Queue: 4 jobs
Job 1
Amino acid sequence: MIKTIRIGFIVNPIAGMGGRVGLKGTDGEAYYEALRRGAKPVSPIRALEFLNSIRTRNIQIITAPKVMGEDIVRKSRLRDKLFKIINSINQPTTPEDTRRIARQMIEDIDILVFVGGDGTARDILEAVDKKVPVLGVPAGVKMYSAVFATTPRDAAIVIEDFVKGNVEIVEREVLDIDEEAFRRDKLVVKLYGYLLVPVSSGRIQSSKTIYQDFSEEENKIAIARYVIEHMDKDTIYILGPGSTVKTINKLLGIDGTILGVDVIYRGKLIAKDVGERELLDIINKYNKAMIIVSPIGGQGFVFGRGNQQISPEIIRRVGRENILIVSTWRKINSVKVLRVDTGDYEVDAMLKGYWKVLVDYNRFVVKKVV
């Protein structure tokens, strides 16, 4: 007989809001700037998708009040599994709410599930350390840590496997970046510690890997040369984040961003570090557009991690046939498959399948997006 598992459930209600508006995070004052730019909540949608995807009935849910969990549980198909609500929260919510509620629930739960990004993972780490297994439902902008399921639906399957005892509990890294440095276009990643994570085959992402050596840089230059030589003069090019893609800017002598989304036309920068709204305006002005993106090293995500400005609507408008994936040999060989997690199930389905990936000057490999 399968025993009933108690799940602690905490939602960071502002996680991920900065992504589509080009803020690369929502920590601190960035939250208010995200609101000013018209950002919409992301994590409640992801949290509800997670809960509604759980098929097992052998669970009870202990959650935070209101927007930090209770509201979403009551909207879900698991509303009858709500067992207990922990304490109270501030308005607006704070990281201390996350830490305090996590500490209060750990004695009563078998596993803690949080919905957020790397910043939320750090709060959970500080609160619970290795006292209980922890699973992250991806809802942030970056998510470099190795504690997240690949998608909310995969998180639900991990929980089902956890209930059945079909997982391995493994120490996984909690990583985060300096968001202030990130917004200044500098990538500073730090290891904060380890959480115990239930690992189910292929459903937990790896931590981000950063590659940097001389041969890697030569490889990026070769890729950029090929892209530039084959650019169409009537097409706008939407360049995703990352040093592989942004080597194109470097060879063109363009002062773009490394970690944001830039747009070039006829070899010139026409928009720098843009959000979804600006991209839609630009696409409306031009007849043809192409998206150039590179997967995250060690994880394989092409869309849905760090480039949410290139939203499902942007992808639909541009079309699958006008997306180019580029990667160095070393990065592409570090992943078995590529992944997408745009937050839109239909767009994810459209993007799945086999892709040609540009890995050197006029050299391609075929990789599957799952």
Job 2
Amino acid sequence: MSRSFSSSAVANSIRAKVMLYSQYGQPDQVLRCVSHELPSSPKGKEVLLQTIACPINPSDINQIQGVYPSRPELKVQYGQSEPVAVGGNEGLFKVLAVGDQVSGLKEGDWVIPSNVNFGTWRSHVLSEESALMKMEKTISANQAATIAVNPSSAYQMLTLFEELKPGDWFIQNGGNSQVGRSAIQIGKKLGLNSISIVRNRDNLKELVDELTALGATKVITEEENASKEFGKTIAEWTNGKPIKLALNCVGGDNCTNMVRKLGQDGTLVTYGGMSMKPVTIPTTLFIFKNITAKGFWVSANIKRIPGSRENTIKAVQKMMEDGDLVDVKMYENPVSADASEEEVYQAFQKALANSNKGKQLVVFS
């Protein structure tokens, strides 16, 4: 993806576009795009940024719906008379200018937010240097724009809950998800064996081949996951070695059947619930296998484990640089940073409407 950048700065200001909301609800009903002026010459520790790319994540949609635990505060800003917030948590920005007290950044640098609730769905933003994390230009813009959520979640789940060693096994549902694909590749880099559960489909062989090429040891269907007889096949694959870790983003029967495959003292980590059904674990597994069930939320670890965001991103970036973690397929929705409010609005609404068809990225030029 080639990049060119807007020169929308006029004498003393830049006209920025922001996607904001004043009440919670469905994005196509409550989001709107407005313009506001930003000074073209930052002061002190301020940094003027232009957005390069920002993804649409399920958590972004949940924030706008008002059902996500972490949400930006609604407050009067951007020339609005009512309290508003800007959508988006993840994105990549280019530094256009810095204040005279900024020491770690310069014009042309790449940065991402250092914390959550930054509000990335916008063309430009004026930020404090302390709210930014510099990204070296050693990976693609798409990778940098999406590094903080999906691959970082996969890395932390594989390294924080069990002391997995080369040759160990983990199992996951949602094997075709963005986190699932990242877990496959990160697991391979760490020397781990993986079993990934996917939904049956007409092009199953194509998907299995694709995930295997990424590094999946084995890929099975939900029907095979539910089969007691198929458990013998899995035991043959693992040569009797216990499966120590299970990653769950589905819930329901899918999760219950997956947990049955954990070995003694194994750990279930739940980071999503796509089926909208509860996680149900048979009592016998707790008593006789001593299974541990935990939840995972990458945003909470920023405060719970100081330095975890920076250390995780550094480790994931190294894997990307080395070619161990490849670009995931994304659908780009291009728009100019100089575009009208309506054009920016439509770019985001198109990305949101197609978010169930694959990873969507709004790309500014």
Job 3
Amino acid sequence: MTKRRVVFVVGSGRSGTSTMAGTLRTLGLHVPQPEVVADATNPKGFGEPRWVVDLHTELLARSNVQVSDARPRAWLDTGTTSGDHATRERVAAWLDEQFAVGDELVIKDPRASWFLGLWRAAADRCDATSSYVTMLRPVTEVVGSKQTYYGPTGGQSGAGSDQGAITRTAAWVNMMLHTERATRGQQRAFVRYGDLLDDWTQPVFALGEAFDLQGVKTAMAVDIAEVHRFIDPSLRRVTMTWDDIGVPDRLRDLADETWQALDAIASDDSAKNQEWCDQLRTAYAGQYAEAEAFAHSTVVAQRRRAAADARREATAQPDRSVADRVPHAVRAMVPPAARQKLRKALRRERSSRQDRA
């Protein structure tokens, strides 16, 4: 049996994914270098390989999908992008290089859920076993944390701004339900962020046994002590409730039930609870389709406005001469006397065109 293991830490951002990735790294798993640099939004570090983040950013742009995208069809778009042969070759080659550093890798990026099929295929080509850890945190805390540290969406302000909260709540439902579906039938675990902060040893050492991670199973006392220093419960700085976030009742109820279903799977990953998630995913798709229908007129108006703005901008552009369109460095190579003759000739040509018009 292969010794190669790759653990994908997935789920919505601001759910404890960085804490989980950092814990596994401290216990001996390798996070491919270089990593995304820590900042004020995540002072302990992100635990994200820079190459992976850049790849996902590129693929999302190619798919016309946002990191937190509420559209159910966005999964079809990223799936199409993931099927590109050249992209699959590129990811498999990079992953194989990382196994030269260590047999047990941890790859974390909130964008990763969009491309799990791509990564699973790459791991298979590298003869590596894939495992998935989905981090769970109450939706109100996730949305509140994003509003606080990333800023609101739609030009609103404040952690509880309705438009940003609605968009991010919908995106959380979409992300979490499809991540559950994408990892179904694979070696996986769902870990509550609160459990990780309360006593990290229980969920993490359970992962070590379930995924056969030697780095975790053979952790030294010094590594365990380092994790105790790394995990800081005070970093759970946002503990909002629905009273703090303005979301329509139907979406709030669906998000609450999604949390309940995923929380149930964390304890019992049974067919019954998986079917519950299927039902919720169908309900969400229906609710989103209704919202799109309601907003259709706004979408059409925005498209018309964008087209009109583009036409006005094109009309406002001055009619530049041929000489103006030649790069300065090239013009400088032409002797001054020759440049003067060319300008006169071009002016005569322009005047002739205007007369014919």
Job 4
Amino acid sequence: FERAPYVDLVMGPDGYRGLPDALENLEGYRSDRGSNSRIRGPQLAILDLSLGENYQGLEQRRTEGPTAWVPIQRGCNHRCTFCIVPYVRGPEKNRDPLEILNEVRDLTSRGVTEVTLLGQTVNSYTSMDLSFPNLLSEVARVEGIRRVRFTSPHPNDVTPELVEVMATEPAVCEHLHLPAQSGNNRTLKRMLRRYSVEVLLEKVEMVRAEIPEIALSTDIIVAFPGETDEEFRDTLELMRTVRFDEAFTYKYSPREGTPATRLPADEFVPTLEAQARLEELIEVSRGIQAEINAREIGRIDEVLIERAGRYPGQILGRTRRNKVVAFDGDSERIGCYTHVGLERTTGATFAGKETSQPELVGQS
């Protein structure tokens, strides 16, 4: 408030239910003072953490479109030393599966055919004796749903049961986001990730054995406090070994209140070195992505048309394997499925040509 005196209200996510009362109080004060008053009104901060809040019963408001995010979980039981989520959102709390399924059914009535289940460690979900693989299967079988994705999973909960559902439920897309964070065991231990590089590679092998067409993406943090150049090289080696289709890359950034900020000051990687590591990681990652995508030229994939493209007469869609494709078409067809031949790639995205007439939403 000192830095932004013009702000009337600051509210954290746990304060949603009290928003109407807070706005009413502010408006009441303004009415009492009169519209021409030059006296600064009250400033309200509602930032209390409610460990029991899971947004049960709160209606989701969304923009129109064929895809939707469906939160199924709040908080996190892990304590990764770089992450603030457990301290601001509390421990893991999972939504009632019946409420989730009802929300998905309601979305289909609005024209949504693809949903993404969302949670901090989404695949650790369990509620009313229903595990995440069970829930994923139930959502995939909702009438009108053609595609299901989920993010962001934790490697430890990528189980044979989950992989079986991914391999056998037709609506579950052939894409898995698998946050590695680092390719060095000592760094992973200091991050408190609770798995080793060897375990991560076993998970990758298991998934690819059951779903050969799977596309894998990941998150990587470089320059975590104490990371040596040799340990950074281990991360580059992991990237070359797994060959992720896409990587979201970051250099370590201190978050106030997290354990990593309390590590010895002399262990923090200098800014210039951290930036150099990030740039090298990006170069390796993009090179691998470009090689993978170049080999996919000539494929014909099912594409869900999601939005208008950058240029007039162009539309953008996404394949089941989470590849973005631009091709000629009318934006009025957003929400339709079609097949597109992949003709060119920029390294990250594709340009293609439609090979069939678009299907109507909901048709098989």
